[in-house]
Amino acid sequence: MKGSIPKPPLLIITDPPVPPQTIENVVTEALEAGCRWFMYRDKNKSAQEFAATAAVLSKLCNQYEAILCINGNTEIADSYLGCGAHVQSGKEVYGVRRRIKPSGLIGVSCHSIAEGLKAEKAGADYITLSPIFETASKPGYGPLLGAVVLKEAAKQIGIPIIALAGITSSNAAECIRNGASGVAVMGGVMKATEPGLEVAALIKEIMG
What we know:
By secondary structure, this protein is of the alpha/beta class. The chain has a single domain (about 10-205), classed as TIM Barrel. The protein has helices at about 25-30, 45-65, 75-80, 95-100, 115-120, 145-155, 170-175, 185-190, 195-205, and strands at about 10-15, 35-40, 65-70, 85, 105-110, 125-130, 160-165, 180-185. An eight-stranded parallel beta barrel has the order 1-2-3-4-5-6-7-8, surrounded by five helices. Strand 5, helix 5 (about 115-120) and strand 6 (about 125-130) form a beta-alpha-beta unit. The longest helix is centred in the N-terminal third of the chain and has 17 residues, at about 45-65. The radius of gyration is 16 Å and the shape is globular. The mean pLDDT is about 95.
């Protein structure tokens, strides 16, 4: 696999889970099941609530030697040792690189090969490429890239590509076969009745 990303190469993106589960509960179960990479995002929490949850998740991840990337808040990513940052365009990479600690990964959300190439040129450590498949969390989100674009992206882009959208334990291995360095999952884990079992199934598939 290209680049230095956590192993297993499974990125769980947080989303508010189904009560009574909490983000902290789901992340704990995922850590116990073997996941070592998380992206914390929450568009609805206040700055204070976001910072508080980020602190808890950072502590949890450090206990398991896992990586936590903060989506959209460079200041918080800079506050915790080892935390990375995830941004929405290659243009943001330059500013983030100057702020976060050297050990922090920087990722960029991309929706085309062209965007991925720009992110690589800007110095990103990895990209998420989406949407690969139809996803229940964003119905109609597209156009779908599928295996063809994923294969071509893997040929052209030199940093790790993390396949995102509609990824399940049934198609995760297909993404790896088609050139992805890893996969990212949100609703499939965050909304799962038993997140730990879902994570274990995903890891089994992507690690072969």
